[in-house]
Amino acid sequence: MDNMTYLIYTLMEPRDSKSFRHIYFTCFLVLYALLLLLNIWLSVVIVLERALHEPMYIFLCNLCLNDIYEATGFYPKFLHDLILDSYLIPSYMCAFQAFVIYSSGMCQLCILAVMAYDRHVAICRPLEYHFHLNTFSCSILISLSWIVPFIIMFFAVFLSNRLTVCKYHIDKLFCDNWSMVKLSCESTVTNDIYGFVFISLYIGLVIVIVVSYVKLAIACKASLECRRKFWQTCVPHIISLANFTVASIFDTTYNRYGSNDVQMSLLNFLALERLIVPPILNPIIYGLKLKEVRKRILKSCIYCIKS
After folding, report:
1. How far does CA 216 lie from the centroid of its chain?
2. What string of H, E and C letters represents the secondary structure of 235-264?
């Protein structure tokens, strides 16, 4: 078996973890349970309600599933570390965690791009909506939103794992690909180039989504009905995109080019914000803002109370 299997990395300990680890554990366990409850509930409502079997809601269901996938890459390991007060991770588990967290991040961005395309067609070309977004095209878009990030992150993690390691501490609460690269004592030129291409694609996709929504907002100015539809269905996408993108870009760029002068508590907050806030915020804002989803959720709540 490869000797790399036996490498053990150390992760950063949360501040005052000796004194407050039980409080941290309780808080993060509640957050994880809330995240699972909200996302599973919204997904089940969409799956069971035939009226919600439309492209927009199917994409939303995939967004919720991706939030669960991302959270499962972080919370169980972090809760395990807190309860045992041991912040060690085998190299193969570190690679797996980095793969899950960052493939889910790219997947979320891809799904938000597909949702932006869905809203553009629905508002600007309503008569062509079911032609462009039929069952086959939706299946292709969803498949690509999952498969492409998996392939990209597989090669990123593969390139990291082939490096010879000479350091064993990751200055973060969880593993990420670039932190693994920085443990190496050999040339990382290939990883640098691949990472630059990955970040460029990431930023390019964000720009495409932003331009799409700007054009959509301009197109909606002429019609009161379009403005109403834009406010109701597009604003949740924009909030999700803004929150996710700001935290992700800061975290990624700091990992590569950051200064040691920045407070570690701020860095941890920004790194965890992407893993904590969007998975909880997404089902809340979509559940409250989208009328059809809100109606079905209220209906399910009333049914649960009566039962």
Report:
1. 24
2. HHHHHHHHHHHHHHHHHHHHHHHCCCCCCH
Distance CA 271, CA 167 (A): 22
User: Residue 278 pLDDT more than 80?
Assistant: yes
- For 261, counting Cβ atoms within 10 Å of its Cβ (0-12 exposed, 13-18 middle, 19+ buried), the class is exposed
Tokens of 208: 């495409």
Task: Please give the full DSSP string across 128-164, using - where no structure is assigned.
Answer: GHHHHS-HHHHHHHHHHHHHHHHHHHHHHHHHHHTSP
pLDDT tens track for 196-230 = 888 888 888 888 888 888 888 887 777 777 777 77
Any long-range contacts for 40-49 (C-beta under 8 Å, 24+ apart)? 40/64, 40/68, 41/283, 41/297, 41/300, 42/283, 42/286, 42/287, 42/293, 42/297, 45/293, 45/296, 45/297, 45/300, 46/293, 49/296
- Where are the extended beta strands (E) located within 182-307? none
How many Å apart are CA 157 and CA 191, to the nearest integer?
10
Tokens of 288: 């409250």
Is the backbone of residue 49 left (phi > 0), alpha (psi -120 to 50) or beta? Answer: beta
- Residue 95 Cα distances to 47, 149, 151, angstroms: 33, 15, 14
| Pairwise pLDDT comparison (232 vs 116), residue with the higher score | 116
pLDDT of residue 300: 67
For the entire predicted model, the pTM comes to 0.87
Contact of 209 with 239, CB cutoff 8 Å: no
pLDDT at res. 146: 95
Question: What does the pLDDT look like over 137-181, one tens digit per residue?
Answer: 999 999 999 999 999 999 999 998 888 888 888 888 888 888 888
Average pLDDT, the chain: 83
